[in-house]
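Action item from last meeting closed. Structure (180 res):
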């Protein structure tokens, strides 16, 4: 199955837009990173958003972590993403359904892969806003790292049939079926 991995970083935070988390499409796109087998990693900026939506539509599966609530909603400011939602494999949504609570990509990556993220979405907004080309590059690198971690997590889950998540001071094994 032809699939693509996606992560999005934004220009604004929830407390900076009218409507907050109910108006994610107003957060603005700073950078998105995709990975697919044919193209490896690619970076997309706000001026590329319409082209990115078109690119995503050519895949059978779009793999994200919180993409249904966040990434696709950010992109919805630039075009119709209804068809993309039908192709979405949102790892956070699946884990929340299985666990009954939300878990961060950082927590799952640390428990399952022993990997640490190098920042947060809040950091990424601050770096982007600085206007400093070095810090803007850091946003793209951070976004790429999230896609790398997501991809590694899905590969691990598909191979082993489970991932690990921390919960109340212990580690839970969560059995997954994310397809190949």
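Sequence:
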């Amino acid at each position: 199955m032809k699939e693509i991995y996606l992560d999005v970083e934004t220009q604004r935070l929830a407390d900076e837009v009218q409507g907050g988390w109910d108006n994610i499409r107003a957060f603005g796109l700073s950078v998105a990173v995709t990975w697919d087998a044919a193209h490896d990693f690619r970076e997309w900026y706000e001026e590329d958003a319409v082209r990115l939506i078109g690119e995503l539509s050519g895949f059978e599966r779009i793999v994200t972590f919180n993409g249904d609530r966040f990434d696709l909603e950010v992109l919805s400011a630039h075009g119709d993403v209804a068809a993309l939602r039908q192709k979405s494999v949102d790892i956070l949504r699946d884990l929340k359904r299985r666990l009954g609570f939300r878990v961060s990509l950082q927590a799952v990556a640390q428990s399952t892969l022993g990997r640490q993220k190098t920042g947060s979405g809040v950091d990424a907004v601050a770096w982007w806003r600085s206007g400093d080309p070095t810090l803007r590059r850091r946003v793209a690198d951070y976004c790429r790292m999230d896609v790398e971690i997501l991809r590694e997590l899905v590969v691990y889950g598909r191979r082993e049939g489970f991932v690990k998540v921390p919960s109340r001071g212990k580690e839970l094994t969560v059995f997954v079926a994310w397809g190949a």
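Note appended to the action item: The chain has a mean pLDDT of 95.
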